[in-house]
Amino acid sequence: MNAVLIAVVIMIVLCLCRLNVVISLFISALIGGWIAGLPFDKTITTFTENIMDGAEVALSYALLGGFAALISYSGITDYLVRKVILSIRAEETKVSRIKVKVLIIVSLLLLSIMSQNVIPVHIAFIPIVIPPLLS
């Protein structure tokens, strides 16, 4: 069997057993290296080199999430939502409420599609856009 597949399954099982993710990664990497026939020092070297590459990506996402939270806490999103609501000037009828809800859902759908392709904000748009709409 494939050593990588076995290591991933072991990691998933350990995580489902509520073991720390980093410890699960380490244990599954050691077992995967052993199954693949790698020497212990080569397994450790490969693990540490690749975990450093992943740390750079994780740090980027953490900074992006922090930036999104700062924008959300600044109040600018609440201001923009108020402006949009005032600009719609919808009447208080059932049909207009349905139209506004459909408009919001379609806008969120388009924003989520663009966040993956056009605007490089990925997951950060969720804490920026959704909480002001819920409040």
From TrEMBL:
InterPro entries: AA_Transporter-Related (IPR052576), Na_H_antiport_N (IPR032813)
Putative Na+/H+ antiporter N-terminal domain location: 2-85
TM annotation in the entry: 5-38, 58-81, 102-130
Entry keyword set: Membrane, Transmembrane, Transmembrane helix
Protein name per UniProt: Sodium:proton antiporter
UniProt source species: Staphylococcus pseudintermedius
Lineage of origin: Bacteria, Bacillati, Bacillota, Bacilli, Bacillales
